[in-house]
Structure formats: structure tokens, C-alpha cells
Specification:
With 506 residues, this protein is mostly helical. 76% of the residues lie in helices and 0% in strands. The chain has 20 helices and no strands.
């Protein structure tokens, strides 16, 4: 281990890992059926759901990646986070009431009620693929600082695989056993740990930078790093007011309304009203959370003089290892681990829920209260835990902040999924084939847009024609994908007679 990683740090880190695992296994030691295992029998208080949602979407991408935004730029990312709040308000009063009316366990059950089993299976499979890819990146991100710690114990080339395996296996243990109850209560603990770690980093930066925060703020202001609003109206820049309010809102509507990872937590609340409180409150909490980590970024910028690191996401991990005192180093490392363990555990449970309810139950024809279904649900959780860990082992650094990589992966499918839900709610002429066609075209089109830069690089002859697509900033992906899906689905709906009245009720 690096000389600075003391026995006290090790004890703090081990205490966190042991405490999280024990808590998860304790609160989730009994499950009667899959409803209990996957949505905690709809008995979770709204404030616990709120922090569970925040912890789930935070992961190490926020803890590690968010400071990178302000280190390299300014506070403009908060424009996107403001859009997140708007998107959650829309979902709270459109999709959430429909989920609760149907007493659903997965978001995609709503599409079966509206369109048929084919739409449910299609969207569930899209969710599984996207979630598996995105969360593999998240695990990789968390392993970065852990690998820095362990690289003196194991060969350097083995440090990342060892870190990934450690994080993956520990999360699998309590998630497999405890189900959703274990997930939400450990996420509450984890949210407290990583917010505490962020606050500790801010306090320490005030001591290690000559002149403290007064000097940091003054220097940042003169360098233009405190800029919050960018009124640029083009779609080739990410951190602008227009991209934030429109793109951020659509991204949030997709992630919190069409992604089982978040929807499953909202369905664990005691009532629709509690779920609405949780989703809107989580948006406000996330805004202040991002502000916290962006402040850390300008402190790191002042400390390191804007120096270039080997990878963009190495800035904060380097500070953690180089400057954290004994005990606090272990706590902050635990915070980094907490951020991803919360998302990782949620991803495992949501993937298992979707596999069980959207694929296995319709095929097996078994009742959800059959004990065999609960056993299968746990096996699916175990299997997905292994898949995500292996995916993280296979991921390779791209030279781009990992938060952007993960959001880009999600974005090229999110538009198709959200468009499918909106088509079902707002367009009565649409039937199943319209929805599947619209979502398929929307996803394929956005895959082409997202990878336009790579295609242009591989095929120079088309680089000029693909240039405008390659320059589209990632916050616009979901908006564009949703628009394409709706356009194709609506157009397709005029190729057949309108369905009978009442046949399309969501």
C-alpha cells in the first residue's frame, strides 16, 4: 500500500464495508415473495426513497467525475441539473400515477397494459442492455482510486482488476440476500457517507491551499470558473442554458420515468403522494449535491494550478491519496466506494426485477407469489451481479470523463424508451407495432448519432457529411431520440385503422 494509507485508514474502510454488508443482510433477511424482494412490499417511507434515488443516481461518476467538470471548465453543469428538476416534475404527474394505478413492479408492465407483451419484452431487453453497459462503466470509475491504493500490494497491471472484483463481489453479497429493503437502507447510509466525504474534502482544501477558500474563490472568479449561465443557443455545446433546461429535462424524464433502476425505488414508496414527494425532492437534493462537488473541482484547480492529468478523472482520486490525513483518507475512500456500491446494488436488483417480471413470469405462467419465483429472482440477481463485474473488467479508459461516457451510453436508448411511453400516453391511434417500430428507429438513429465521431474517424470519406451529427452535444440525445420515436410512431399509426375506443387506455 502507499505509505500514506495507514492502518487507521484500512480499519475505517473495512468498518464501512463490513457495516454496509451487515446492514443490508439484517434489514433484508426475510422476503415473503418477489413483491417483497423487488419493491419492499411498498412500505418504504418517502424520505428514505428520496435518498435512495439520490444515492442510486450519484455513483462514483458524480463523486469522481463532477469535480472534473469545474476543474476543466466552470459551474455550467448546474444548468443541466436544473433541467433534471423540471423533468422530475413532469414524470411525477404523468407516468407515476399510471404506475400506481396498475400496482406494477416494473415500468415496462405499463407498456404491456397499453400495447401488449411484445412491447414489454422489447423495452425490458433494451433496459437490460443499456443498464449493464452503463453500470459496468460506473464500477470501473469507482475502481480508479481503489486501484491507486492497492497498486503497491499487487502488480500495477493487476490493480484495476483486483479493485473491480473487490467492489463487485461485496455488493453482490448483500444485494442477493436482502433485496430492495437491503438496497434502499444501505443507500441511505451510503448517501450520508459520500456527502460527508465531499464536505471533508472541501474543509481540507481550505487548509492545504494557501489563502484558503477566499483565495480559491477570488482566483476562480478572475478565471471565469464561477460562470453559471451560458445563453448560447446552438446544440454543439453541452453546458448551456437551453441544453440544460431542455436536454436535462428529457434526460431526467427518461431516467426517472422509463428506467427501471429509478422507477423501482419510486414503486417501493407507501403511496403515489409519497413517490411524488420523493422524486421531486430528489431533484432539489441532487442540485445541491452537484454544487458541492463542483466547488471541490475549483478547489482542486487552484491547488494543482490547472495541471493536466493522465486521465481527466484522476484529479480527485489523486488529491484523495496525496492529501487526505490518516483516518480521513479511509473515510473518503469509503465515500467513493459507497457512491458506486449504492448504484451497483440498485442496478443488480432492478435488472433482476425486470428479468423476473418482464421475461420469466410471462414465459413460465407462474404466479408471482410462487416460492420458486422468489428463488429465481435471487438467482437472476446473482447472475446480473456477475455480468456487471465482468463488464467493468472489460472496460478500457476512453480519454473522456467517465460520467460523459456513461450518460452517452444511456442517452442513445433513453430517447426511444421515453418516446414509447409518451406514445402510449398521448397518442390513442398507436398500437404495439407502431410503438416497437418507433422505439427501434429512435434507438438505431441515436446509436448512429452517438457514434458518428467514431464512424467518421474510421471512414474518412464520410467524415464531412457526418460532421454536423458528430458535433451534437450529449444533453440533446434524449430529446432527439424521443422526437424521432414519436414522429415514426405517429406516422406509422396512420397506416392502419384507428383502434376501438377504450382499447388503448394506459
Amino acid at each position: 500500500m502507499p505509505a500514506r494509507f495507514s492502518l487507521l485508514d484500512l480499519l475505517v474502510l473495512l468498518a464501512y464495508l463490513a457495516g454496509t454488508t451487515a446492514l443490508g443482510m439484517l434489514v433484508g433477511r426475510r422476503q415473503r415473495d418477489v413483491k417483497d424482494y423487488f419493491v419492499a412490499d411498498r412500505a418504504i417511507a418517502w424520505w428514505v426513497v428520496l435518498f435512495s434515488v439520490v444515492a442510486t443516481e450519484t455513483s462514483a461518476l458524480t463523486f469522481i467525475g463532477a469535480p472534473t467538470f469545474s476543474y476543466l471548465g466552470d459551474f455550467g453543469f448546474l444548468q443541466i441539473v436544473a433541467g433534471y428538476i423540471l423533468g422530475r416534475v413532469v414524470i411525477a404527474f404523468t407516468l407515476l400515477p399510471r404506475y400506481y394505478d396498475g400496482q406494477l413492479v416494473t415500468a415496462y408492465g405499463l407498456l404491456e397494459r397499453r400495447f401488449g407483451i411484445g412491447a414489454r419484452r422489447f423495452t425490458s431487453i433494451v433496459f437490460m442492455v443499456t443498464r449493464a453497459l452503463a453500470d459496468s462503466v460506473r464500477i470501473f470509475a469507482t475502481a480508479i482510486p481503489v486501484a491507486i491504493i492497492v497498486q503497491s500490494v499487487v502488480p500495477r497491471r493487476s490493480a484495476m482488476p483486483a479493485a473491480v472484483l473487490l467492489l463487485g463481489l461485496l455488493t453482490i453479497v448483500y444485494t442477493y440476500r436482502g433485496g430492495m429493503k437491503a438496497v434502499v437502507w444501505t443507500e441511505l447510509l451510503q448517501a450520508g457517507v459520500y456527502v460527508g466525504g465531499g464536505v471533508a474534502a472541501i474543509i481540507l482544501l481550505g487548509h492545504v491551499v494557501p489563502g484558503g477558500w477566499s483565495d480559491i474563490i477570488t482566483a476562480a472568479r478572475h478565471a471565469g470558473k464561477l460562470r453559471l449561465i451560458d445563453t448560447y443557443t446552438g446544440i454543439d455545446r453541452a453546458n448551456t442554458l437551453l441544453a440544460g433546461l431542455v436536454g436535462g429535462a428529457f434526460l431526467s424524464m427518461a431516467s426517472h420515468g422509463a428506467d427501471q433502476l429509478i422507477v423501482q425505488r419510486l414503486l417501493s414508496a407507501r403511496s403515489l403522494k409519497d413517490a411524488q414527494r420523493a422524486i421531486i425532492g430528489s431533484g432539489i437534493a441532487v442540485f445541491f449535491q452537484f454544487a458541492l462537488f463542483l466547488v471541490i473541482g475549483i478547489g482542486l484547480w487552484r491547488l494543482y494550478g490547472g495541471r493536466t492529468f493522465a486521465t481527466p478523472d484522476a484529479v480527485f482520486p489523486t488529491f484523495i491519496v496525496e492529501h487526505m490525513p490518516a483516518g480521513l483518507l479511509g473515510l473518503v475512500l469509503a465515500a467513493v466506494v459507497a457512491a458506486t456500491m449504492s448504484t451497483h446494488s440498485g442496478a443488480i436488483n432492478s435488472l433482476a426485477a425486470s428479468t423476473t417480471h418482464d421475461i420469466y413470469l410471462p414465459l413460465s405462467k407462474r404466479s408471482s407469489d410462487d416460492p420458486r419465483v422468489l428463488r429465481m429472482g435471487k438467482l437472476f440477481a446473482l447472475g446480473w451481479g456477475v455480468v456487471l463485474t465482468v463488464g467493468a473488467l472489460l472496460f478500457r479508459e476512453q480519454g473522456t470523463p467517465v460520467v460523459v461516457v456513461a450518460l452517452s451510453i444511456a442517452s442513445f436508448t433513453y430517447g426511444g424508451l421515453l418516446g414509447g411511453f409518451f406514445l402510449g400516453i398521448f397518442w390513442s391511434r398507436a398500437v404495439q407495432r407502431d410503438a416497437i417500430l418507433g422505439m427501434s428507429v429512435g434507438i438505431l438513429a441515436m446509436a448512429f448519432v452517438v457514434f458518428a465521431k467514431q464512424i467518421a474517424g474510421a471512414v474518412p470519406s464520410v467524415a464531412a457529411s457526418l460532421g454536423p451529427l458528430a458535433r451534437i452535444a450529449w444533453p440533446w440525445y434524449v430529446f432527439i431520440g424521443t422526437s424521432i420515436t414519436l414522429l415514426v410512431g405517429i406516422t406509422s399509426s396512420y397506416t392502419h385503422p384507428a383502434p376501438r375506443a377504450g382499447a388503448t387506455r394506459a
